[in-house]
Amino acid sequence: MTAQWDTVTIVGVGLIGGSAGLALAKRGAAKKIIGVGRSDSSLEAAKELGAISEGTTNIREGVANADFVLVATRVSVIGNQLEEIDTCVRPGTPITDAGSTKQSIVDRWEQSRSSRKGRFVGSHPLAGSHKRGPQAADPALFEDKLTVLTPVESTPQSDTQSISAFWQLIGAQVCHLSPSEHDRLLASASHAPHIVAAALAAATPREAHRFTAGGWRDTTRIAAGDPDLWADILLDNAKAVTAQIENFSQVSDQLQHAIEEGDRPTLIKLLTLAKESRDALGS
Hints:
Shape: globular
Number of helices: 11
Helix content: 40-55%
Radius of gyration: 21 Å
Strand content: 5-15%
Strand order of the largest sheet: 3-2-1-4-5-6
CATH topology of the largest domain: Rossmann fold
């Protein structure tokens, strides 16, 4: 493949950023991939894996000559990083992020859109793992996975197209949602499920651990994710997450009541509804 960009800069070289770097390198899509990280050790690890060609801990230096910038860091810092990046990039540089929430990030950018140098469109690749760091990076992470773009009314179509092309080039499928719709739907599909998994893991007594098998381990896998990262996500999307927790609690209460009352028909009805919902997704 002919290189699409001379220089792509990836801010944050962990699982998502590292995987994007590996996918770009595998396809020869960028002549140079610059990684920006907090530590020399993580940058060196990413370089040894081939996810980046060079690294720096200075975000301003890292983005100054970039033709495309991906910010793959925690949602709690993306807003500040976008502000700093925008002061350093060349006018017209496409910028996107990989944050799991979108409303607060996009709103902050849009407040000063008219004076921006960069061309930002929010993104959220629905791919990941409870593992972290560049060592967990996978060049196939995004292949056939959905990436949500969150353009707003003032976003030029050409900006959305350039960000879409980036994700499609590394194998992702792309769809568009408003930032608010993204956060509402992802509260149900991703954020609240983490709460459920964490609650089950925390509520299971240690003496039962030796008896856990596939069901418990499958259900609680995501509870092994980074607590700091997940606290950022849940607090940033608090309203939508708490609404979904309330929905879950209502169904949980119905199940509990049916069990306590020995109400087999209602219990079967609720379990059947759950099975049909899960079966609709396929394997």
